[in-house]
Design brief:
about 180 residues, mainly alpha, about 70% helix, about 0% strand
Length: about 180
């Protein structure tokens, strides 16, 4: 496995693991995710709980597929499909002027917006990178492995805390 494949696997595995844990950490967290889907008004309200369960199950499948060496390509592919679907849903909701909090990683009050689309496109690019490097070989040294995993961990942290970072650097009326 190349350093690039290791980075993309660890990065996406970490992001999707946090997504699953954030939504499935308890009944209240899952219900908040269901309510955020209802707020988008893209599907009938009665489907929201089923759609939420399907999303969490698919995200968990990405984690498992990326963790098991023989299923990595499927993991990157499923991640890409999910990200395309979620990004499309956000774009449609924004276009219709619908506001819903981003419950992508659990509790957040930040409404879905352009920053979330950009974040998902970055994750989609990582999925494509993972697909491109899946199965690649090369000599790996312990230092390179540590560096790839450390870079992935920093990337996961930046993605998971993106709402906080966007709020920190947001230009408000008071700051002008």
């Amino acid at each position: 496995m190349s350093y690039a494949e290791l980075f993309f696997r660890a990065f996406l595995l970490g992001v999707f693991l946090f997504a699953v844990l954030g939504k499935a950490r308890g009944r209240a967290a899952f219900e908040e995710f269901v309510l955020s889907l209802q707020g988008l008004r893209l599907t009938p309200r009665k489907w929201s709980a089923h759609l939420a369960a399907l999303v969490v199950a698919a995200e968990a499948a990405v984690v498992v597929l990326l963790a098991v060496p023989g299923t990595v390509v499927a993991g990157f592919g499923l991640a890409a499909v999910l990200l395309i679907g979620m990004t499309g849903a956000i774009v449609v909701a924004i276009g219709k002027g619908r506001q819903a909090p981003c419950r992508c990683f659990g509790a957040s009050v930040t409404p879905l917006g352009t920053g979330h689309v950009v974040r998902n496109l970055i994750l989609l690019a990582a999925s494509a990178g993972g697909l491109a490097f899946a199965g690649s070989t090369g000599a790996t040294e312990p230092g390179g492995v540590v560096l790839a995993l450390a870079a992935a961990a920093v990337g996961v942290l930046l993605v998971v805390r993106a709402d906080d970072l966007m709020a920190l650097f947001a230009v408000t009326q008071d700051s002008k």
